[in-house]
Amino acid sequence: MENELSTKIIGLAIKVHTQLGPGLLESSYKECLYYELIKNEFFCEKEVALPLIYEEVKLDIGYRIDLFVMKKVIIEVKSVEALTDVHTAQVLTYLKLSDCKLGLLINFNVARLKNGIKRIVNNL
Fold it and tell me: Which residues pair with 75 in a beta bridge?
């Protein structure tokens, strides 16, 4: 299910990138991708708070998932010069804290979006 879903999400992300191109703020891409997901009848939550559990204490320390699609796929939207290991680690952390299997790290600040997409799998 996650693989099919991620394929559809990537298609919508490519549509957004084709319309807007690179160089805009991250928030612009996030809002447009959210719009496309909702328009295409995907259940999608934006800026989902993600608490950290430490020694059975729930800590709300400001983690936010950019887009959470169908409670199955986490999308982290970036508009940066290049993706780094820190970006990957961020998505892995979100996957672990949410018990989710699949994350998409999407950097819209590239000439061709396929070069800005990274699938990240949490091997529960």
Answer: 67, 104
**Residue 124 pLDDT greater than 70, yes or no:** no
Residue 66: domain span: 2-121
- The 10s digit of each residue's pLDDT in 57-100 is 877 777 899 999 999 999 999 999 999 999 999 999 999 989 89
- Provide the domain count of the chain: 1
Contact assessment for residue 82 and residue 111, using Cβ atoms and an 8 Å cutoff: no
What are the phi and psi torsion angles at 10 (to 5°)? -60, -40
d(C-alpha 94, C-alpha 52), whole Å: 10
Separation between Cα atoms, residue 48 and residue 27, nearest integer Å: 15
Contact 61, 40 (CB under 8 A): no
Q: Which residues contact 35 (CB under 8 A, 6 or more apart)?
A: none
Write phi, then psi, for 9 (nearest 5 degrees): -60, -45
